[in-house]
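Ticket #4471: structure export looks truncated?
Reporter: QA, pipeline team
Priority: medium

Steps to reproduce: submit the single chain below to the structure queue and open the exported record.
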Amino acid sequence: MKEFNKLNKSDYEELCKEACINFMPTGDREKDEEKLLFAVCRKVYSYLNEPLDFIATGSTSYKYKWNLQRLVKERQTESFNTQEIVGKFVLEALNRTDKDLL
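Actual output as written to the record:
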C-alpha cells in the first residue's frame, strides 16, 4: 500500500508563499493568475509526490484551483481553508509593484 505525504496548514502556507514570492505581474491579470496558480500547484504536488495531473473543465484558473483544493483536502492533517490561503498569496503577488521587490 502506497504511503502518502500529508500537509499541515503552516507547510501549505509556506509552499504558497514560496511559489508566489518573486512573481512580478505583467499587466495581464488573468494570465498572471494562471501562472501563479500553476506555480502553487507545482510546489504542492511536488511536496506531496504527486504528478501534475489535472481534471475538471472550465477556465484554466478554475481547473488549477479545483485540483489543488481536491488534493490538499485529501492530504491535510488539520482543517484549514485551502482557497483562502492560496488566494491571499496570489492576490498579494498580483498587486505587487517593482518597489515591493526592492
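Status: closed, not a bug. The export was complete when the record was re-opened. Leaving a note from the reviewer for reference: The CA atoms of residues 16 and 86 lie 6 Å apart.
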